[in-house]
Specification:
The structure is a homodimer. Chain A is of the alpha+beta class and about 150 residues long. The first copy, chain A, is built from four helices and seven strands, in the order αααβββββαββ. The structure holds a DNA duplex (25 and 25 nucleotides).
Chain lengths: ~150, ~150
DNA sequence: CTCCTTGCAAAATATTTGCAAGTAG
DNA sequence: CTACTTGCAAATATTTTGCAAGGAG
């Protein structure tokens, strides 16, 4: 239907280099805006649009991952090792799982209306320590919560 | 830190009844706007804000699920049986898995920076039949894709 | 009657895009 | 030089919210 790819996009600009470098320093899986705030300290004139465009390019070229995880805001990760994540249901922060659980096998999976099943994703939900310290009863959070914002 | 809950929200209005009724008819896991378009055929003066407010209320009161699944747009599901989903990486549509895979055990999971691990989520990605019919080589989709929009 | 709920519009949030100017190769 | 990239601003897209009027119990 549509063509595979658009523009070459190969030039290593200062903006692209700094975005990638700062993302690689972080283990916090920042949002585009969080990364923009960091990069801006080194490149004060950079725009948020440039950060978005470069994050898209870096994702498509396989240099970083756009985290396909629940929540309103996309997050990015320069760690390309396959790994799983926990997401804080209060604040949306994400941490890595260092001892991955086994992913379910997909080879026998058949779903009506789907031509291909390509992969599985396992993720976890929890309450981060920072948020837990604000909650009277963190265990109750799983019952009474808004996605992305615990009451 | 903050209180548990806000307003009682107990009145069964016509809008709320129709929203719930139409969502229950659907197996398509619609977005708020998709459901709004459907409900509007029966209640032409309903507003999108009312749909959002009722979806929030119905979610918080446990009558429906807000699907915490990858993608930009939230989707809703009146099927409260625990079940898993496949998401089409092309168009974002979601289908149910009728033969659920085993969820990983979380009781032994410890993650630095997280006070509680509450639950796991397993989801799948694939290409729906409609999108597959538009792609020359659906198997290539997993390599070259934008989240939510395959090239 | 009370106050929860709605419609409407504006605001808030997140992301994308058009365009002229800038710059990597 | 060429054309990929950027900064800026405006446009989209999604979701939330203030407020006066409406309606369920």
């Amino acid at each position: 239907m549509s063509e595979l790819h658009h523009q070459p996009q190969t030039r290593m600009t200062q903006q692209r280099a700094v975005i990638l470098e700062e993302l690689r320093k972080l283990k916090t899986h920042p949002t585009a805006d969080e990364l923009y705030q960091i990069v801006r300290q080194r490149l004060p004139r950079i725009s948020l649009g440039t950060v978005y465009r470069n994050l898209l390019f870096l994702t498509e070229s396989g240099q970083i991952s756009k985290l396909e995880i629940a929540g309103n805001t996309n997050r990015f990760d320069a760690n390309m090792e396959p790994h799983q994540h926990v997401r804080c249901i209060c604040c949306g922060s994400i941490a890595d799982i260092h001892t991955p659980v086994r992913e379910p096998a997909i080879d026998k999976l058949r779903v009506q209306g789907f031509a291909r099943i390509l992969r599985s994703r396992v993720e976890f939900e929890g309450v981060c320590e920072q948020c837990a310290s604000h909650l009277a009863n963190p265990d109750a959070a799983v019952v009474y919560y808004h996605p992305d914002k615990v009451v």
